[in-house]
Amino acid sequence: MGKTILSLALVGLLLTSCAGEFNKVFKSSDLDYRYEYAKQSFAEGKYARAATLLMDLITPKKGTDDAQEALYMLGMAEYKSRDYESASATFKKYYQTYPKGNYAEQASFYVGQSLYEGAPEPRLDQSPTIGAINAYQQFLDFFPDSELRPKAQERLFELQDKLVQKELLSAQLYYNLGGYFGNINSNSESNYISSIITAQNALKLYPYSKWREEFSVIVMKSKFELAENSSEDKRLERYRDAEDECYGFLNEFPESKDCAMANKFIAKCKKVIGD
């Protein structure tokens, strides 16, 4: 028990000592001393401490030989601290300020990389994902021969998949809501139509997506349910449209597990249409 208390006391003393040293450095008027301490902190993996010092040094160091390194190091310290929003802004500032600078290539890459790390799951708003895609694309345009190109391309494909997933989830949600609202209901009809439009737009935008079959299934199911839930004046036309969609699905995906469902829909459509 006594050893534990002594150990805790020593840790507390060490932390107090470190905090005191940092405060002394932070308040120092010697810019070079503060900068060297920031570099040392960064090298030791104390990124939050390095970032705190560097943020206060960027303006005073502007125009000096250390200016580029300080700004880039600040971005990396923020990135390593997982403050991805600040990091992307800092890397962007570096690239805009020093487009031909010593770290221009890395900074351009890390604009996208920071946004990539902070991109949300597919169910959430994908504005950061779009920002990351644009940043990576800009990097590839300006640095086509970079060693980081393969990694940027890989990340680009991952982010594009995330956008496709977002559309898939939206189309599926509209379809589910259509069934929830029930038959011959304006909300039901509107949701089935929204499901069809969302899925068809995704098929046009991402024709080679690995979820192409899933989107096609949603379109087929939504068109059939739309016909099933239509008023008399629209039923015949919509059953014909649903039937055509089912045949199109069977032609494109003849080995799909959903072929049985497509054939079932076709049989129902023919019965209503009278073919």
Keyword list:
disordered N terminus; elongated; 275 residues; single chain; mainly alpha
Structural summary, described in words:
With 275 residues, the protein is mostly helical. The chain has 13 helices and no strands. Helix 6 runs antiparallel to helix 7. The longest helix has 33 residues. The radius of gyration is 29 Å and the shape is elongated. The N and C termini lie far apart (89 Å).
Give a brief description.
The protein has 275 residues and is mostly helical.
Share of helix, binned: over 70%
Distance from N terminus to C terminus (CA atoms, Å) equals 89 Å
Number of strands: 0
Radius of gyration, CA atoms, in whole angstroms: 29 Å
Q: How would you spell out the order of helices and strands?
A: HHHHHHHHHHHHH
Q: What percentage of the residues does DSSP assign to strands (E)?
A: under 5%
Mind describing the biggest β-sheet? none
Which geometry do the CA atoms define?
A: elongated
Structural class: mainly alpha
Count of helical regions: 13
Q: What's the mean pLDDT score?
A: 89
